[in-house]
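pinned: reference chain
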Amino acid sequence: MHEHRHGRGRGRSHFGRPGGWQQADLPPADDAAGWFAGRLPDDWFTGAPTITVDREEIYVLGELPAPEGTDDTTREAAARGRIGRFREDTREQRMQIADEAEARYGRKVAWGASIGETQELFTHLAVPVMTRLRQDERRVLDTLVGAGVARSRADALAWCVRLVGEHTDEWLSGLRDAMEEVDKLRKAGPGAD
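pinned: its structure tokens
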């Protein structure tokens, strides 16, 4: 689910070109964790949020305080309720901070919150050119590019597809064999005529 933001700069780079920042003029984001630590209100999270950056997106994940007095059966529901309240209560401020960060770093900002094992992502970028891959999936492609296995994300994605394709015949053959075995067992089982 995406939160919509309105304001200047949407859909155009700072140089007036449609489509946002181009790779050649993408600002570095080495100081993003420090910038967010200084910019976010102190009472939002129980500690410093986790900041993850790639070429398209900055992901801000913060831990919220756990609701008190919940037992095992209601813990997750209480956590989801608190995360939902945080999302609604901070929406306008998060959108303003995201606008500032986009102007500074040339990347969209995705927000998320967690309480223990319960985690929700509020906004995220699905990059159309990368067939709507999420940040962790794009990071796999970036690792392949960084390691020199591929020249670009598109090349890395093609490499992954080729690798899966090489193993598909073997996997499908094994799946067919297993299905035949299940069929034989089913026919030989109790109640078989």
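why pinned: The radius of gyration is 23 Å. The beta strands are 50-53, 57-63, 108-115, 118-121.
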